[in-house]
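ARCHIVE CARD
CATEGORY: sequence design from structure
SOURCE FIELD: tokenized fold
FIELD CONTENT:
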């Protein structure tokens, strides 16, 4: 189990947040509702979705590396 207050917990949370926002960008209703704002506090969802779609290969590799770390090393 990963603690949110540790560095690896923050990394896991960030990766899951980016992956979730990138997935929600593919759903048309949620894309318009959640990701329409590009500024302010709601802009964080849009920016995470953009990172997840543009850097999908790097994000996927980071997710695999973090899964290996959490399952086998920690």
């Amino acid at each position: 189990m990963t603690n949110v207050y540790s560095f690896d917990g923050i990394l896991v949370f960030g990766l899951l947040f980016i992956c979730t926002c990138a997935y929600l960008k593919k759903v048309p209703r949620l894309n318009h509702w959640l990701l329409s704002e590009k500024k302010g506090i709601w802009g964080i969802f849009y920016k995470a979705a953009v990172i997840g779609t543009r850097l999908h290969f790097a994000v996927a590799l980071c997710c695999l590396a973090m899964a290996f770390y959490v399952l086998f090393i920690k």
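CARD ANNOTATION: Residues 7-73 form one domain. The radius of gyration is 14 Å.
SHELF: design records, drawer C
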